[in-house]
Amino acid sequence: QVQLAESGGGLVQAGGSLRLSCTASGSIFSINPMGWYRQAPGKQREVVAIIISGDRKDYADSVKGRFTISRDNAKNTVYLQMNSLKPEDTAVYYCNGFMGGAGYWGQGTQVTVSS
Questions:
Q1: DSSP string across 22-47
Q2: Which of 11, 19, 31, 53 has the most CB atoms around it within 10 Å of its CB?
Q3: Average pLDDT over residues 33-58
Q4: Strands 34-39 and 18-24: what pairing?
C-alpha cells in the first residue's frame, strides 16, 4: 500500500510559477512510473507529465517547455515545477504512481491561474 500526498497548489497570476510536491508514505524507489495528472471542471482527467525510471520524462504537448517533472528518491518526493502558467492550467492536480501492478492516487491539490 502506498499513500501519496500532494502539496504546493494555490492561486497565482498568469505568467507566474508554482512547484507541486508529491510525497509518498514510503520509498519511491520501486514506484515507477510516477506522474502528474490534472482535471479541470467538466473535463476528463489528463496526463500532464510522467517520469519513468532514470531520466526518461514525457510531457503533454500543452505544457512542454513550461513544466518540469523531477523526482528525489532520497526524499520520497516527485515534483512538478510549473512556469509561465496560463488560465487554462487551472485544475486539480493529482499525483499518480504504479507499484506492484497497482496504481495509486493522491487526494489532489488545486491550482488556480487568474488572468
A1: EEESS--TT--SEEEEEE-TTS--EE
A2: 31
A3: 93
A4: unpaired
